[in-house]
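Hi all, long-time lurker, first post. I run a small reading group and we've been trying to get comfortable going from sequence to structure in the token notation. Rather than ask abstract questions, I figured I'd post a concrete chain and ask someone more experienced to write out its structure so we can walk through it together at our next meeting. Sequence below, copied exactly:
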Amino acid sequence: MGMHVAGRIEDYALIGDMQTAALINRDGSADWLCLPRFDSHAIFAGLLGTEEHGFWRLGPAHPADTAAPHADRRRYRGDSLVLESEWDTPRGTVRIIDFMPPRDGAPQLIRIVEGVSGRVPMRSELRMRFSYGRVVPWVHKVEGRTVAVAGPDSVWHDTSAETYGKNLTTYSDFTVSPGERIAFTISWEPSHKGQPPLPEPEASLEATEDFWRDWVEHCTYHGPYRDAVVRSLITLKALTYAPTGGIVAAPTTSLPEEVGGVRNWDYRFTWLRDAAITLSSLLRTGYRDEARAWREWLLRAVAGDPENLQIMYGIAGERELGETELGWLPGYEGSQPVRVGNGAAGQLQLDVYGEVTEALHLAHMTGLARNDYASVLQLKLISYLEKHWYEPDEGIWEVRGPRRHFVHSKVMAWVAVDRTIKLIEAGDADGPLERWREMRDAIHRDVCEKGYDKERNTFTQSYGSQELDASLLLIPQMGFLPPDDKRVIGTIEAIQRELSTPDGFIMRYPTSSGDENLDGLPGDEGAFLACSFWMADDLAMIGRVDEARRLFERLLALRNDLGLLAEEWDPRLQRQVGNFPQAFSHVPLIDTALRLTASGAYGG
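-- Answer (accepted) --
Happy to help. Here is the structure in token form:
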């Protein structure tokens, strides 16, 4: 079958069960799957290496017969996370249905092959490698089921087709006729337990479709961008860890921000910032249960030590996320190192106080039942900011250079104080109102004096710097200054001028000035999709709605065929880069769609 090579990032489809997720390439290969949690070891790590590191390809047995070595058509079934791919071969057409049922017991990945026309020879090639491709499991048969065991993990493979082992891989060769359906399943169990129950693929398929249909019915958005918004919401739901309500930034690690470069990070954790903005999108579109679960997650994660708020936690609230490198994986398209864990957990990023407070404020404003501890937490966060808001920090982008006075961090500190004052004014909490109003004014004055360049009429990345930063686009969205303020308009225009790619997308910040790299890392990165959505938002806010809509529609065109976005867009290679799919891209997509719909700015 030749060497299996990972596809382009946008060639992947996401399926998941709200505890972990799999990525499936257009060629029918599952190249990424961590079990049993998002942040567990991968059993298919082919995405970050070669076929030696684990994959599961299911497709026509003679790839040379198909026009291309990948599916001719694929789509999600309606508003669900059930993937359907169709292949046309000289011998007939075949359909594959891939999904992970919302978990009730053992996690399962189910793949159903269905004959559409003719008689098509098919092949399943399953190569499980545990510990991110390093460990070859012991594979044997137990009562007709194939089981792979390594250390604490066991994965059971069930199918009605004949299977055989060769080259440490499990194969199945079979033929499907019209209307015939053959299912293949893998299920995970701790290795010290007995067998997981036999899967029921058809019943599970029906239950999975029902689950997503019911979930999507709660969506309150019915505007012109409904398809894009609903697909983004389903993706965000898929990134939510159901048992705790924690939300991962992305289900992958080390997909590069620059192909072949070193900007490769593990995103399978809950960043307070990403989770807070995700929560706000869910609240705005009618999803209150998720918001309540996340608020509970937050209160547990921060409990006992709000003074030492981390910028990120594990999906169950773990604090230790030590960063290590997996030397045996060559990386996605040679992008090394491959990292697991995230050392940024120890950074000071003062803006998270603002994002968390804003999320709690929104939950409160949208009528989420009052939680007294949430109000107490909010007051504790402000008490912390009172002592620390004027300190330099590492800022929103996790730069690994020296700490600075980032303007966005100070603006978000202002937001935290402002929203808490509103909580007290509404009679829903007690606090030193006068003192905190003075603090709010002091932060505002500080930013306007030290973070604003009068000559160029623009705010800057940090106090005294010449550099711009796309996070300054949040100033009008956060209510720090009104959209028609000349300093806001000047900033928007300066960012358009200095941080735009040739096709009008926005970079986070200039990564290099002269010889030195501003963020302490070599290399460059793509246009950051969230920032480009923020620009569309701002343009709509200052009345340039046609321009906003055109930019938004260009951004929608960057999504893959299934409506998914990674973190960034590489304007040189014209492809998606960074971890995938990325909550921090889908959230602002939803927000911009809501804003454009509210302003009536869309074509017929």
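A couple of things your group might point at:
The first strand starts at residue 13 and ends at 16.
Residues 9-193+200-214 form a domain with the Beta-galactosidase; Chain A, domain 5 fold (CATH 2.70.98.40).
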